[in-house]
Amino acid sequence: MQLRKKIGLGILFIAIIGVVFWGIGFMKYKNSINTLQPQAIEFKNLDDGKYSGHYDMNYVSVSLEFTIAHGLLTEIDLIEHKNGKGEPAEVLLSEFIEKTNHGC
Prior knowledge:
The chain is α+β, with helices and mostly antiparallel strands. 39% of the residues lie in helices and 29% in strands.
């Protein structure tokens, strides 16, 4: 077998293995999304102060800090947001605060 054919087959083999591992990772990500169970937080039961949170689903992750004052969510600071090929979440933060504080 010629050296070029061996190299070509080696590259093809590596590419196939890469696609298989990517597919496995993507299926785990989709499963994470399908089984995600958001938990309601009663902000009125929290003491005033800053809190932090992190969630990671491989392709999408977020780290944030939020501030509670007088039982209301007053601020969300997005520390890190990895959004894959989705949209940035920054535009949703003020809307989330508004809806959370008004029970919508």
